[in-house]
Amino acid sequence: MAPFHIPFLGKDEDKLPDGVARPTWVILDVTGPYPERQPGNPLQALLNREDTLEALEARIEKLRGADWLHGVLVRISEFTASPAAAHAVRQMLARLAKDKRVVAHLPQLTMTALLAASGAQEITAPESADVLVPGFATQPTYLGAFLKKHGIEFENLRIREYKAALTRFSQDHMDEANREQLTAYLTGLETAWALDLAAARGVSEDVARAWLSGDLTSAHAAQAAGLITKVAYEDELVGPGTRPLAAVIDLLMPRRGNAKAGRVAVVSLVGTIVPGKSKNNPLPLPLLGGPQAGSDTVVAALKHAKKDDKTKAIVLYVNSGGGSALASDLIWREVATSEKPVVAVMGEYAASGGYYVLTHAKHVVASPYTLTGSIGVVSGKPVLQEFNARHGLNPEPVGNERALMYSAARPFSDDERAHVEKGISEVYDRFVSRVAEGRKLTTERVNEIGRGRIWSGLDALELGLVDELGDLRAGIERACELAGLPYDAPTWNAAPAKTGPLPEFVQEAARAAQVTVWPFGRERVLTWLDQEVKVR
């Protein structure tokens, strides 16, 4: 029989060796930031040019099922994903490694690239590889002094001392409570990293921790320390039977799920939680740029999944630092009243309102690297009184002063401040009761671990805020178990049912044009972690 030739590899020198019908190795490129899911909205999906974890997992599952494939060379280059996303890649490669030989090749030995690669049996790097294994850190910038210099004060009313949502605007430095929680969070990330790398490389946790302080500067030093398997250039790893993934895509048969018993819906909640419809704010604003998860849109998606006869369980994927207290509560209600089991899966963030929405899920899965918790409430406003005076601006109030309580023209009065503090205290008590009821904890315990404090997913598991450490695949498997479905049951991305005279992509385009600096409507009480904790 004549050997099978790979489609569109026309040159003779690109033919497979004699006697080899199909490639024995495939090269899989992993590069970029890797958001979790493809946007459910048609317009956002069309405009999205970033590869997703969802798409990567689909490719890896096809490679797992290719009986003609011996191994996969995974090139992890310019990898800018979060630690939570890197951990998800790790889990995918570990599943692949159960069926195939997996070798990861890293031109840059960074914290997140190594974490992603740790799912492979072997890790290689070129002799000239950059080695950057310094642990994790973050560096928020405080604007209080800058704003005050320009005549802008910031009213910051919060519950409680760890709730740092607005402190970078109201203060000129980090307070001790915030420093304490950020230090603990980063320590949790380094512990999770050491545990993951130790398990992957077959060493003790102490050895893995030593890599963070071992001053490794070269690929050879990393190999000597046991961090990587081999120092090699890519051409030394690629044989004549190796082809890039694009060249073998026609050979990869889709893995068909067992659709007879039912399916699992995945509903995504990504971005700042706001009232109304979901949209994306394209402006690079320090507070409000990026995706916004509207309560109307998320609730409609959940309702669609709940009404779908074929859907037997729902996975709520949350990557959000929260936002509107009202919008968070409306989404929470839809989860809490679902007769179908809901499993929540946390991404990079599931904090404040992002945690509120999932408290009553039947099962909660977090990455060890998820930033979660922040059970607290905040309100406030900028005060432009001095700014206005400096620039000759003179706002003149007319009517009931209470109606102008949130005006930036003046500070809160004592009576108004007491009124706002009463309101956020009521929201905080409701937040605490939601967590206590959903997580089977006492309100005293929730208040003890709440107070606005953030936790790593690793710590959240010990505290009882989550049930399991894992990724989206683990969440889907738990949903299958709760619904009595096989693990290979199909999944679908649930979005709002199609309504209205205009196509959904036209409606989305109209919403995208309605950019607003304050997306929370008239609401000023927030369950929000506004500061992105970008670790390095």
Automatic annotation (TrEMBL):
Biological source species:
Deinococcus phoenicis
List the SUPFAM superfamilies hit by this protein, alphabetically. Answer: ClpP/crotonase (SSF52096)
Q: Which domain of life is it from?
A: Bacteria
Biological process terms from the Gene Ontology for this record are: proteolysis
Keyword Chloroplast in the entry? The reply is no
| UniProt similarity note | Belongs to the peptidase S49 family.
Name a Pfam family for this protein: Peptidase_S49
| PANTHER family per record | PEPTIDASE S49 DOMAIN-CONTAINING PROTEIN (PTHR33209:SF1), PROTEASE 4 (PTHR33209)
The protein here is known as Peptidase S49
Q: Which UniProt keywords apply?
A: Hydrolase, Protease, Serine protease
Boundaries of every Peptidase S49 domain copy? 96-238, 337-485
Quote one Gene Ontology molecular function term: serine-type peptidase activity
Q: Does the keyword Lipid biosynthesis apply?
A: no
